[in-house]
Amino acid sequence: xxxxxxxxxxxxxxxxxxxxxxxxxxxxxxxxxxxxxxxxxxxxxxxxxxxxxxxxxxxxxxxxxxxxxxxxxxxxxxxxxxxxxxxxxxxxxxxxxxxxxxxxxxxxxxxxxxxxxxxxxxxxxxxxx
Length: 129
Prior knowledge:
- This protein has a domain of 60 residues: 434 Repressor (Amino-terminal Domain), CATH 1.10.260.
- Helix content is 47%, strand content 9%.
- It has seven helices and three strands, in the order βββααααααα.
- It has a three-stranded antiparallel sheet, with no helix packed on it.
């Protein structure tokens, strides 16, 4: 059996297109591949022993992963690398990630800028004016 790989791209407006072998684009239908009602989605989730939704009690007990840690991991940086790259004291970063403290409003805005365009923030910090 021969497999076909489909390459897709999402445009800034959220539309998804298929990239054809000649490089042109073809619109992908907005119709779901398998339309399911909300009840069917819930039934399917409960039927899969590896994907049973958490109960409210389990959600309350779940350990929260700080966003800064998720962002750092997505950038594939160690704590030391992230701290040095974005001029954040290592101890502050560790406190945020371990839940000992929360970023203040200014730090939250800075982290949002990093999340939005990490390379631009890095370039701005390390350019020589």
